[in-house]
């Protein structure tokens, strides 16, 4: 992130911090285990969503989400600005949410869908949770202010898939032959990414991969955002990916399978179909998928070229206890 | 003195398989030398330029199996020019001309052409086994001629080669009468294969133990293949992005369950999670698991593979600059070492490491034979103490008494090399990058590691003093690679003068070969890449312009 970006972001944060501190105080008192979902829109384009837990419901509440959509349509730009620029306030709200047991219904096919999930699934043993990890590029602040300027982060995402055989573009890794991964392997994986790139006739070629993980699943999935036209397509595709996985889990109860998932989570998977989407922005804050119009979302996502194994330290500890 | 007739001695020698031992036998006496060389069937040549084919055939007329290695290891990382060398064709020509009864050819990092493969397939009527690892220069047409003409082919193993896939029908070229196949690996081919031909081939090969298919073989085909080959020991699967439907999944599970001998799994590029879970029932028997192409598997689920002996963990994102939760760290390595006590070979890329973790790993797994750790950022210290990783690696070499291969990384001083020289008595291959402070580091290794065969160093401050300190050491080593170090042209010239039995190659891309005509001052110029190796046949004739042999 350039110096200017950093200053800008800092400015935005302090302004919005002041704004949000008063407004969010009231929202933060979330009732526990309330079966309803609330979508609270604040004036001034400041959108805060509070969600409450549904213990075993599989119903989908569309009414909640539609309010989000309307708002989104009219204040798209502003929502972009402020939502992106609200790292402090959102996480504040989220931290209190952590004590609750929220989970959110998903609308399988609606345009501009607004759904969210909770990141921290520990202790929520009776529901299915998904968390989608999105990578934010450094220049988040850039995007919030100037929508048309696609930053170099997207080309970097492309570069990482197309230029795998040559020196990587990242400043740190411009050493020839470093890291010592065989060019055969890099080429193969570049081919992998290219092969799964669906041509949609969209402007901006290349792939824009993000890692998507469902909590409780031992595998991340890699998703090419460019192959989806809107949130609806994305969420239905993700649903397909993970639902069959959960069915499969019920089916395969080999000894190794049991090792992979705890008993409680197996039960959870029976409540499939209820999951929500969030992404983690640069500041580690969990943002609602759907706040940002789809076109912007594509622009602000960092391309991730997932290669090889990725071990999350958090999960590492969990499984250490189990083993 | 020999009290036995030669035939008896020869029979005794038959029980001695290892190359090292047979080489030792041949030094005992003239008569043993003769008996040994005439009965020698398998020859391993670690550097194809150390000897030429004519001398090989002269010494070993009964040759049946030949292993050749060409380019230096760092060629894998684009440090060696493409046209450097390692051509197999002269070898095949010479062997064919001498009517050697060649049955097996194993090549690594060599340049192979379709013409060579065609000649090979026509010249050796008993040819049984072709293994090509990291080779290049040929197409599926070459494979077709091998399939068609080698009537007794048992093994066709293609590992990570760059093959031009003409999408022809090379699998069809196996004659219907060929039923002897024990190993088929075409995982590196990029194109579609003729599935019907493949299935027929597998069905008529009851001895098939190892099958590694490429990405283009779909799941249902794999299921059918496994069903007709439940005796498989080694399986490489393709790429299965899409979730299978329930029925396909059940069929896959059933087929897998029948493969009770399965010990080794690989492939899995772009694997859908469901497909991987289908393999769980047999995973506890696995001794080898290569998920290095699988993009989306989290490492923490490997730690329960008790039988696991070999593991490779590759970086999930080569261009990842930011910290992110999914980065591979020392925690994973420790967990793996705790959960897999039989682990003896590991290649592990990670973002960060600590001395404490390495010490723990050394305690948990003292059986390492190969330990390769690559911390992605050069010179990165222990992230908790900001110290160098000397102690961590020192613990590894001290505990792992059988360590034969080691790659070090992170912030390292001369001290780690002192440890290596002191403790790594069995070490044969050492890879150093961005490490060390002074020539002493390299000297510790050269003086201490008696069994050192291959030493490869890049971007480290070792210079002429270390290079020239003990020239005779290079007689006992296969090769030395130094790139972006402190050695100068003058130092290399001096070495070449003192050791005429060495080929001292200077690789300078983008330079003409007027190196020798420069004046004295250029002797102080640093050499970009140096590759030296012992040889009995002098300077090679096929070097490209960018390579100067001093």
Automatic annotation (TrEMBL), chain A:
Which residue windows are transmembrane per the record? none
Broad class of the protein's primary localization: nucleus
Report the Gene3D superfamilies cross-referenced here. Answer: Phosphatidylinositol 3-kinase Catalytic Subunit, Chain A, domain 1
From the Swiss-Prot or TrEMBL record, state where the protein is found. Nucleus
Domain (PB1): residue spans on this chain: 207-312
The record's section on InterPro entries has:
AUX/IAA_dom, AUX_IAA, PB1-like
Q: Does the keyword NAD apply?
A: no
Alphabetical keyword list: Auxin signaling pathway, Nucleus, Repressor, Transcription, Transcription regulation
Write down the superkingdom of origin: Eukaryota
In the record, the note on similarity to other proteins reads:
Belongs to the Aux/IAA family.
Assembly and interactions?
A: Homodimers and heterodimers.
Q: What function does this protein fulfil?
A: Aux/IAA proteins are short-lived transcriptional factors that function as repressors of early auxin response genes at low auxin concentrations.
What is the protein's name according to its record? Auxin-responsive protein
Q: Which organism is it from?
A: Brassica rapa subsp. trilocularis
Gene name in the database record: A09p010040.1_BraROA
UniProtKB/TrEMBL annotation, chain B:
Could you tell me which CDD domains the record lists for this protein?
F-box_AtTIR1-like (cd22159)
- Keyword tRNA-binding among record annotations: no
- Where is each F-box domain found? 4-45
Cited Pfam families: F-box_5, LRR_6, Transp_inhibit
List the InterPro entries hit by this protein, alphabetically: COI1_F-box, F-box_dom, Leu-rich_rpt, LRR_dom_sf, Transp_inhibit
**Top-rank taxon:** Eukaryota
- Keywords attached to this entry: Auxin signaling pathway
This chain belongs to the protein called F-box domain-containing protein
The organism named in the record is: Brassica rapa subsp. trilocularis
């Amino acid at each position: 992130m350039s110096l200017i970006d950093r200053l800008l972001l800092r400015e935005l944060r302090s302004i919005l911090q002041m704004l949000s501190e008063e407004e969010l105080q009231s929202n933060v008192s979330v009732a526990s285990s309330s079966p309803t979902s609330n979508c609270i829109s604040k004036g001034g384009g400041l959108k805060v969503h509070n969600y409450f837990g549904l213990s075993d419901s599989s119903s989908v509440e569309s009414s909640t989400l539609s309010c989000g959509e309307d708002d989104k349509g009219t204040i798209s730009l502003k929502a972009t600005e402020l939502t992106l620029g609200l790292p402090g306030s959102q996480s504040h709200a989220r931290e209190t949410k952590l004590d609750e047991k929220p989970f959110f219904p998903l609308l399988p096919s609606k345009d501009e869908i607004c759904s969210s999930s909770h990141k921290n699934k520990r202790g929520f043993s009776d529901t299915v949770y998904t968390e989608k990890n999105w990578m934010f590029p450094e220049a988040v602040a850039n995007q919030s202010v100037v929508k048309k300027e696609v930053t170099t982060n997207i080309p970097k995402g492309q570069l990482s898939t197309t230029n795998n055989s040559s020196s990587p573009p990242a400043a740190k890794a411009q050493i020839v032959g470093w890291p010592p991964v065989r060019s055969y392997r890099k080429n193969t994986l570049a081919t992998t990414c290219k092969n799964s790139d669906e041509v949609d006739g969209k402007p901006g070629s290349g792939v824009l991969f993000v890692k998507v993980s469902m909590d409780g699943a031992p595998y991340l999935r890699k998703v090419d955002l460019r192959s989806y036209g809107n949130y609806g397509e994305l969420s239905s595709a993700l649903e397909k990916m993970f639902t069959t996985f959960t069915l499969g889990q019920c089916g395969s109860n080999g000894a190794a399978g049991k090792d992979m998932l705890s008993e409680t989570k197996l039960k959870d998977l029976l409540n499939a179909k209820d999951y929500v989407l969030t992404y983690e922005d640069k500041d580690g804050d969990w943002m609602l998928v759907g706040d940002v119009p789809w076109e912007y979302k594509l622009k602000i996502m960092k391309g991730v070229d997932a290669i090889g194994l990725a071990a999350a330290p958090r999960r590492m500890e969990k499984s250490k206890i189990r083993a | 003195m020999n009290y036995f007739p030669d035939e008896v001695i020869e029979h005794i020698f038959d029980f001695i398989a290892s190359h090292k031992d047979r080489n030792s036998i041949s030094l005992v006496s003239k008569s043993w030398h003769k008996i040994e060389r005439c009965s020698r069937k398998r020859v391993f040549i670690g550097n194809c330029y150390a000897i030429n084919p004519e001398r090989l055939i002269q010494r070993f007329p009964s040759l049946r199996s030949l292993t050749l290695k060409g380019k230096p290891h760092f060629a894998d990382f684009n440090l060696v020019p493409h046209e450097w060398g390692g051509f197999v064709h002269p070898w095949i020509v010479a062997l064919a001309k001498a009517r050697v009864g060649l049955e097996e050819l194993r090549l690594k990092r060599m340049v192979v052409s379709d013409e060579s493969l065609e000649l090979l397939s026509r010249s050796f009527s008993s040819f049984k086994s072709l293994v090509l690892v990291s080779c290049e220069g040929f197409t599926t047409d070459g494979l077709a001629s091998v399939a068609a003409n080698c009537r007794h082919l048992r093994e066709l193993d293609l590992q990570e080669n760059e093959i031009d896939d003409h999408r022809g029908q090379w699998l069809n070229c196996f004659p219907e009468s060929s039923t002897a196949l024990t190993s088929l690996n075409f995982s590196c081919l990029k194109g579609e294969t003729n599935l019907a031909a493949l299935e027929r081939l597998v069905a008529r090969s009851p001895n098939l133990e190892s099958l590694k298919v490429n990405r283009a073989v779909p799941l249902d085909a794999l299921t059918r293949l496994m069903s007709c080959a439940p005796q498989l020991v080694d399986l490489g699967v393709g790429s299965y992005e899409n979730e299978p439907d329930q029925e396909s999944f059940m069929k896959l599970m059933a087929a897998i369950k029948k493969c009770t001998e399965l010990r080794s799994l690989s492939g899995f590029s772009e694997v859908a999670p469901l497909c991987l879970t289908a393999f769980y029932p047999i995973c506890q028997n696995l001794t080898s698991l290569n998920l290095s192409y699988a993009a989306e598997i989290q490492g923490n689920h490997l730690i329960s593979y008790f039988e696991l002996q070999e593991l490779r963990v590759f970086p999930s994102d080569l261009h990842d600059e930011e910290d992110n939760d999914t980065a591979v760290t020392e925690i994973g390595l420790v967990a793996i070492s705790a959960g897999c006590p039989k682990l003896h070979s590991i290649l592990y890329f990670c973002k960060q490491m600590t001395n404490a973790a390495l010490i723990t790993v050394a305690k948990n797994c003292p059986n390492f034979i190969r330990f390769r750790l690559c911390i992605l950022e050069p010179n990165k210290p222990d992230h908790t103490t900001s110290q160098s990783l000397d102690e961590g690696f020192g613990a590894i070499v001290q505990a792992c008494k059988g360590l034969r291969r080691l790659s070090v990384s992170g912030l390292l001083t001369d001290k780690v090399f002192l440890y290596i020289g002191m403790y790594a008595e069995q070490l044969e291959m050492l890879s150093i990058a961005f490490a060390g402070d002074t020539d002493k580091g390299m000297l510790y290794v050269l003086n201490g590691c008696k069994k050192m065969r291959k030493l490869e160093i890049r971007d480290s401050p070792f210079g002429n003093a270390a290079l020239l300190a003990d020239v005779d050491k290079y007689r006992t080593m296969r090769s030395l690679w130094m790139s972006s170090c402190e050695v100068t042209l003058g130092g290399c010239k001096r070495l070449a003068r003192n050791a005429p039995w060495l080929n001292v190659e200077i690789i300078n891309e983008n330079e003409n070969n007027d190196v020798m005509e420069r004046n004295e001052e250029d002797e102080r110029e640093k050499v970009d890449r140096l590759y030296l190796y012992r040889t009995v046949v002098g300077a090679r004739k096929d070097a490209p312009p960018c390579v100067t042999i001093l």
